[in-house]
Amino acid sequence: MHAPLWRVNYAANTSHGSVANTSEGKVQARAKMMKIGMTIRGYRLQKGLSQGDIEKRTGLLRCYLSRVENGHTVPSLDTLAKIAGALDLPLAQFFAEDSLGRELNTQKLTDDELRFLTQIRRYSSNLNDSDRKLLLAMVKKFAATAAK
Question: pTM of the full predicted structure?
């Protein structure tokens, strides 16, 4: 179901085919696992999708998707292709140099804020422009009132 850590170490090592058995190699491998998971989570949230939505589109279990996003599991290329398809992205987008990473790092949102924004995005996608503007005006008014 997922690649063992030695395979990730092997892929992470830049020397010609030797396996990185050092603790530094393992740290680099773990960092790569975390990066791909964070990239997947970022694109999923950016598109307003839940792990359940991805589960329905790919057949991959939510618990597995969670492990991938949290860097505990290394997905195969076939699995990454399924996830990319569910997100309407080319597979190569997951490996683009920090295209999403810079955007996500500047936001520094908590998990609660991300969940809230995901829900707003999901429900507002069914609204027309006029209703969206009305909703935004209501949120601004509520925020101004709550700040007093």
Answer: 0.52
Burial bucket for residue 68 (CB in 10 Å: 0-12, 13-18, 19+): buried
Q: Report the chain's mean pLDDT, rounded to a whole number.
A: 75
Per-residue b or e along 74-95, where b marks 16 or more CB atoms closer than 10 Å to that residue's CB: bbeeebbebbbebbebeeeebe
- 22-94 fold: 434 Repressor (Amino-terminal Domain) (1.10.260)
Q: Residue 80: which of 28, 30, 40, 52 has the closest Cα? A: 40
The DSSP line for 40-79 is HHHHHHHTT--HHHHHHHH---HHHHHHHHTTSS---HHH
The answer to whether 12 and 78 have CB atoms below 8 angstroms apart is: no
Of the chain, the end-to-end C-alpha distance in Å amounts to: 53
pLDDT band with cut points at 50, 70 and 90 for residue 52: very high
Checking if the pLDDT of 13 tops 50, the result is: no
80 is written with which tokens? 């990454």
What is the model's pLDDT at position 83?
A: 95
For the chain, what are the domain ranges?
Answer: 22-94, 111-147
